[in-house]
Amino acid sequence: MSKFTRRQWLTLIVISIADFCNAICVSLQAPFYPQEAHKKGCSATEYGLVFGIFEFVVFLISPIYGQHLNKLGPKLMFNGGIYTTGICAILFGLLDKVEGHYPFIILSFVIRITEALGNAAFLTASFALIAKEFPQNVATTFASLETFFGLGLIVGPTVGGALYQVGGYTLPFAVMGSALFMSAILTAIVLPTHEDEEDREAIPSMLNALKIPGILLSAISIIVTSMSIGFLQATLEAHLRSFYLQPVILGLMFIINGGVYAIVAPGFGWLCDKCISPKVVTIIGTVLVAAGFCLIGPAPFIPVETQLWLTMLGLVLHGLGMAAQLVASFTDALRTSITHGFPNNLETFGLISGLWTSTFALGAFIGPSISGILFDFIGFRNSTMFVVVLHLFVGVLVTIFLCLAKTRSAYVEIKDEKDLDNSSYVKSLQQNSVTESMNSICSLANGISIEKSRPAGMNSLIACNSYKSQAWPKKEASSLTVGPYSYSYGAVNHRNGSATPNSYLQGVA
C-alpha cells in the first residue's frame, strides 16, 4: 500500500466510506421492521419475504449489470446505485405513516426491490473499480473493502436500535439514508472516470464463464459460504434461546463471526496476492467453516451438550473460514478468467464482479430458507451437519481440481510494451525459446529446424519463413494473453495487428 498513488488512495477511501454506509442502510431495519409490520397486521411469512426478496433481486440483476458495466460506465453505475439505495432507505422509514395491511406490505416490497436494484449496481461497480484501479493488489484491496462492509453490517443494527429508541421508526432511516446520499456526492467528485474502450473484444456470457471449471468452483464456494451466513441468521437466536440471554448479549453473539471476518479479511487478501494460490486459501476456508459448525451445535457426534463458550469458539472459526473463502473466490475467478483468454479489461472485471454479487445473493436467499426447514424437522444440532458436509464436499472438489489441473503460468499483467521489455518473466521466456530452438535443430546441413511436436508442414513453413527467428512456443505464450499482447504461430503480436518489435524476441535462425 505504500506504493499506492494519490488517485488509488482517494478511490480506496471513498469506496470504503460508501461501503460502510451502504452496509448500514441494508442491515438497518432488522431489529424493528418486523415489529412495525406486525402492528400493521402482517404475518411472519410476509415480512420475511420482504427481507428475502432483496437477495433474490440482487441475484437476478447482478449478471445483467456485469454484462453492461462498460457501456454504462462504472462511475455512473456506482453513484446511481448509492443514490438509489439512500433514497430507498429514507422512503422505507416513512412506511409507519402508511395505514392498512396491504398498502404497507405492497410498498415494502416495492421499496425493497428498488433498493436491491441500487445495491446490486453499487456492489458490481465497486468490485470492478477495484480490479481496474489495483491490478497488482486485487485480493488485498477487495478484502479491505469487505472489512468496511462487514463493519457496516455489524454497526447497522446497533445504530438502528439506538436511533429507534431516541426518535422512533423514521429517525434511523432518515439519518443513515442521508449519510449514504452524502457519500454518493463525495464519490461523484472524487472517483476517477474510466472511458469506454472503443476496441472491445466480445466478452463471453456469464454462462460461458461458468463452463470454466476453476470459475465454477469459485462460484460454488461463494454460494455455500453465503448459505452458511444465512443459516445462522435464521436459526442462531432460536438455538441460544435456552440460555435466556439478555438482548445486548444476544446481539453480541450475532456479530462475533462478522467481526472476525472484518478483522482477518485483509490478511487473507494479502496471502492470495503475495504467498499462496487462492484455491489453497479456499480449501483452508472450507475446513474452518466445517470445524466452526461442528462446535456451534455442537455436532451430533460430539458427546457434549450445547455450551455458550463452545458456540462462541465455533462462531470465531466460522468468521475465519468465510473470510478465507469469500476473498479467495473473487480473486481466483478473476485470475482464472484472464488466463483462459478473457481480455484484461473493464468488461471482464464487470462480468466477474456481477458473478460474485449474484452468487453471494443466491446463497443468502437459499441459506435461511433451508435452515428454517431443517430446524423445524431435525433440530439445530443435526441441521448443522448440512453445512459441514457441504463445505467439506467443496473442499474435496477444489483439492481434486488442484491435483488434476495442468500447471499454468503465473498471473502476469502486462500493460504496455515498456513493461513487456523490462519484464523478467519475458526475459526468461526468451531464454527458454532460444534453448528450445537450439534443441529442435536436427539437421544443420540443410538448415531446417524440426520440432517433433509441430506438424511437418508447419516445420517447412517456419524453416523457409524469414520470421522463423521469432518462433515462440504456444505453450509458453499462453500467459501473454493477459494484457494487450496475444500469440500467433511464429510471433507475438499486438492485438491491433502490428508486429511487436522483435529486438527482444530474437531467437536462433
Helix amount: over 70%
General shape: globular
CATH topology category name of the largest domain = Growth Hormone, Chain: A
> Could you give the count of β-strands?
4
C-alpha end-to-end distance = 45 Å
- Number of separate domains: 3
CATH class of the largest domain: Mainly Alpha
For the biggest β-sheet, the strand order reads 1-2
Reported for the largest beta sheet, the result is: 2 strands, antiparallel
Q: Estimate the strand proportion.
A: under 5%
**CATH structural architecture of the largest domain:** Up-down Bundle
Mean pLDDT comes to: 74
> What is the radius of gyration computed over CA atoms, rounded to a whole number of angstroms?
26 Å
What is the number of helices? Answer: 19
Poorly predicted runs? 408-509
**From the helix content, strand content and strand pairing, which structural class follows?**
mainly alpha
Question: What would CATH call the homologous superfamily of the largest domain?
Answer: MFS general substrate transporter like domains
Question: What is the H-and-E element order?
Answer: HHHHHHHHHHHHHHHHHEEHHEE
Structure, explained:
It is a single chain. The chain has about 500 residues and is an all-alpha fold. The protein has three domains: about 1-195, Up-down Bundle (Growth Hormone, Chain: A); about 205-410, Up-down Bundle (Growth Hormone, Chain: A), CATH 1.20.1250.20; about 415-505, no CATH class. It has helices at about 5-25, 35-40, 45-65, 70, 75-90, 100-135, 140-165, 170-190, 205-210, 215-240, 245-255, 255-275, 280-295, 310-340, 345-405, 415-420, 425-440, 455-465, 475, and strands spanning about 440-445, 450, 485-490, 490-495. A two-stranded antiparallel ribbon has the order 1-2. The chain has a two-stranded antiparallel sheet with strand order 3-4. Strand 3 (about 485-490) and strand 4 form a beta hairpin. The radius of gyration is 26 Å and the shape is globular. The protein starts with 5 loop residues before the first helix and ends in a 15-residue tail after the last strand. Mean pLDDT is about 75; it is low at about 410-509.
